[in-house]
Amino acid sequence: MTETEIFDDVIDNLPVLVKQDSEGVKEKLSELFLDFLELSHLYDSAIEVVKTYLNILDSEFSVKFQRNPIHNIESRLKSPQSIIGKLQKKDLPLTPDSARKNLLDIAGIRVTCCYISDIYAIVEMLGRRDDFTVIKQKDYIKNPKPSGYRSYHLIVNVPVYLSTKKQYAPVEIQIRTIAMDFWASLEHQLKYKPSTVITPEISEELKECAERIAETDLQMQRIFMEINDL
Ligand code: 0O2
C-alpha cells in the first residue's frame, strides 16, 4: 500500500459525519498525516545514524582486539498510540510538533554489551563524537532504580543530513549487559501484563534477583580482566 492509499483508506473509514463536514477536515488530517510521516522518517534516520556508528565501533574492536563488546543492538520507533498516550499523560498538545518538542524517547536504541566495562567504553565513545550532543544521561548502574533496574541511559541529539537540510533528532540509547537485559526484559513482561498483581513481596524478590545478577556481572567482569591480564 502506498502512503496515499493508506491516507485514503483512513479518510474512507472516518465516520460519515466527519467526511461530510468539510474539505477543511480532510486538509487538516492530510497535513497532520504528512507531518507525522516526516517525523517518522527523521527519527528512523537518526536511529540508523547511531546504529551505523555503533556497528563501526564494534567491528573496530573486533579488528583491534579480536572481541566484540556489543552483543546485540535493537531499535524501535515509539508507536503513534504510545506517543499520543504519553502526550495525554503529560497534558501536552497532541500534535507532531508537540511530540517533537516534548518527547525525547520517540527513537530508541537498546545496546546489550558483554561486560560492564564495555558499557562505559561505549558511553565514552558516543560522548566523544563532536557532531553528537548528549542532552541527558542517567547511570542506573551506579544508581539502580528502586525496582532493581540497571542500565545506562543517554539521550543524544543526532544530525540527519536530508536532501536540502540538516535536521537534529534526539535518540534514547539504553546500554546494559546481557545479564541486566535478561532481568529488565523478564521484569517488564511480568509487570506490564494488565492481569498481573505485583505484591510488595514479589517486588522485593525481583529486586533480590537484580542484585544477585549484578553480583554475577561483577564476577564475570573480574574473570574477564584476570584472563586479559594473563
Ligand atoms: P518503553 O516502551 O520501554 O520505551 P520517561 O518515562 O522517559 O518520561 P524518565 O524518568 O526520563 O522518564 O525515563 P527513564 O526512567 O530514564 O527511562 C524510562 C525507560 O527505562 C522505560 O521506558 C523502560 O524502558 C526503562 N525502565 C525504567 N525503569 C524500569 C524498570 O523498573 N524496569 C524495566 N524493565 N524497565 C525500566 P518506558 O517509558 O517504560 O517505555
Short overview:
The chain has eight helices and five strands; from the N terminus they run αααβααβαβββαα. With 230 residues, the chain is of the alpha+beta class. About 2% of the residues have low confidence.
Salient structural properties:
19% strand, binds ligand 0O2, alpha+beta, flat, 5-stranded mixed beta sheet, single chain, 230 residues
How would you characterize the overall build of this protein?
Helix content is 58%, strand content 19%. The chain is built from eight helices and five strands; from the N terminus they run H-H-H-E-H-H-E-H-E-E-E-H-H. Strands 1-2-5-4-3 form a five-stranded mixed β-sheet. Residues 14-18 have low confidence and may be disordered. Ligand 0O2 is lined by residues 105, 108, 138, 145, 147, 149, 153, 184, 187-188.
Helix content, binned percent = 55-70%
Distance between the termini: 58 Å
Biggest beta sheet attributes: 5 strands, mixed
- The number of helical elements comes to 8
Beta-strand content: 15-25%
Would you tell me the structural class of the helices and strands?
Answer: alpha+beta
Strand order of the largest sheet: 1-2-5-4-3
Q: What would the average pLDDT be, to the nearest integer?
A: 89
Pattern of helices and strands = HHHEHHEHEEEHH
Write the layout of secondary structure elements.
Elements: H1 3-12, H2 16-21, H3 23-65, E1 70-77, H4 80-89, H5 96-102, E2 107-113, H6 116-128, E3 133-139, E4 152-161, E5 166-177, H7 178-191, H8 200-229
Parallel strand pairs: 2-5
Antiparallel strand pairs: 1-2, 3-4, 4-5
The site of ligand 0O2 has 10 residues, from helix 7.
